[in-house]
Structure of Phosphatidylglycerol--prolipoprotein diacylglyceryl transferase:
Amino acid sequence: MLTYPNIDPVAVALGPLKIHWYGLMYLIGIGSAWWLAGRRLQRFDVNWNKDTLSDLVFWVALGVILGGRLGYVLFYDLASYIDNPALVLRIWEGGMSFHGGFIGVMLAVWLFGRKHKKSFFQLMDFIAPLVPIGLGAGRIGNFINAELWGKATDVSWAMIFPTDPAQLARHPSQLYQFALEGVALFVILWLYSRKPRPTMAISGMFALCYGIFRFIVEFVRVPDPQLGYLAFDWLTMGQLLCIPMILGGIGLIMYAYKRQEVAQA
């Protein structure tokens, strides 16, 4: 069994001002994606400049934060937030939904595309390879917060998390998600996007791979206590929300290549 490092969730404390690692992970993810986007900018549109890219990053970051928080409230714990609406503002304690953030990003990209004369999928294909950086950073934030841990296990790399009232050795599922949703997904999309692909294919690959990775990890992750399992004693909310992503990803990839074949013919 491995020893949990027990890192203080507060990275810096200056009197009443506290900067949490969870928040810093979001800044690291957004900043790193911004830098990489700048390196790929001319391949995307030679007429774009850094100011246009900055606007896109702002819109996407807004979609991530607002969508992620509202998605968690709606999908995972609506009753608690109805009882105490002020909890919505306490983002540093966690409680962000990827699927909510994904919807928020799609809405932000659609609005941004209307302003800058870019199609929705052109923009989604551009930002999709950058998203895993933020996902991986967010999972490290979950690990530091000692939240979203996995089921009890006897594997040699199990850990006991300080926030676990039962103090059982558990799967460090946050690190599994970091490895899959962060590292593996970034490598797949970055390599896949290095060659020209039909519009929608990169977006479809993102949705497909993320959905599969998340669906798998949910088998060893403890479901949110207020929800538990939704069906069959194993189906979680995370898995349910990934099913349309997997199916949609397959559909987008097939349609993208089919449309390319028709255009070439």
Observations:
- Residues 41 and 72 are 32 Å apart (CA to CA).
